């Protein structure tokens, strides 16, 4: 066995204390509102009303900061296509895997996602 491989992972309580790491609100909340004009997502039906592009980019930058602060030598990141496009500038197929150094992850502002 290799040390650390297959270990269970858990967030610390101080990292996501209220379990609201996503943007916006859910239907029925007072904060739920109309889709913002600069929603970064393609037109469609979503659970949340939308997210302005700058809020999305700030959230992606916070993710990169969080990853950079981790002690692990290898980290597996499972996420949606737009997160990968925003951080790598590459389009991924479903279930596609790519190994790359953490230094290559940063928020791209020259791509649409």
What report would you give on this structure?
- The chain has 113 residues and is mainly α.
- It contains 2 helices and no strands.
- It has helices at 53-68, 81-88.
Number of helices: 2
What is the string of helix and strand elements?
Answer: HH
First and last CA, distance:
40 Å
Strand content: under 5%
Mass-distribution shape: globular
Number of strands: 0
Mean pLDDT: 79
The unreliable regions are none
DSSP helix fraction:
10-25%
SSE order and pairing:
Elements: H1 53-68, H2 81-88
Summarize the structure.
Helices cover 21% and strands 0% of the residues. With 113 residues, the chain is mainly alpha-helical. The model has no long low-confidence stretch (mean pLDDT 79).
Keywords:
single chain, 113 residues, mainly alpha, 21% helix, globular
